Amino acid sequence: MLLACAAASGTYLLYTSLAFGWRGFGAARAETGRRRGSPGWVSSSGASLRDWLSHAGLADVPLREIAAAVAGAAVACGLGGLVVFGAPLPAAALAVAGAVWPIATWRNRRRAHRAAAQEAWPHIIEEIRLLTAAVGRSVPQALFEAGRRAPEPLRPAFEAAQREWVLSTDFERTIAVLKARLADPTADAACETLLVAYDVGGGDLDGRLEALVRDRLIDVQGRKDAVAKQAGVRFARRFVLLVPCGMALAGMSIGTGRDAYRTSLGQLLVVLGIAMVALCWLWAGLLLRLPDEERVFQ
Question: Does 189 fall in a domain?
Fold first, then answer.
């Protein structure tokens, strides 16, 4: 096992060095000649895929790297299942389950980014309102100043929008870049409000931003209350996932349990158990999912 792990590590380092230009032991992505935020394979996909990648922090990641991560997780889980169960069918089932793990991790990252954006946007909009009304900043200046104090996951989008503004001084294109990078319904509403105020002018910007802040605060508080009520159920969902694993390991350590897993019936029952646990996990996740707002100003 040690020799196999060493050989696999060396193969990984050689392949990633030649194929991706990575250096060292970490998964560092090489820069490409494409424009940031618009890799070629994303441009042919739908807006929903671009939104998902933006929220997950993968808008600039090539498809081959995502495929490599999925394949690596599948191989690792398959080898682990082969070592534990000593049978090919359970190892294949665990490999399929392991291939889903990176996608689930990116989905969790997407949800965390979206929750952080939903909590941050009322404060960002309020700061823009104060900068435009009390301090006298122009709409673009207020937007960029508020963006510099935004949470870390949102700052790259504001920096990209500011670069677009410096290069083109076209506020409509700047807003388009910001909306594409953020891919958030609240950001769409705030950006469209600012764009109309910049193009048309008028003295009602303060009132409209104040109303938008109140609406966003109500939405954020409602979602927080819903998540708090689901806390116990979410903990139980994670805890129940460990029970079948513990029962399987206990069965292997008793008498001839390990040999029973190698029989045809034993392999079939293990695969059936893995499939049932995965289906119940996905079903519970669907029941616990809060509704997402739809983007209307894409």
Answer: yes
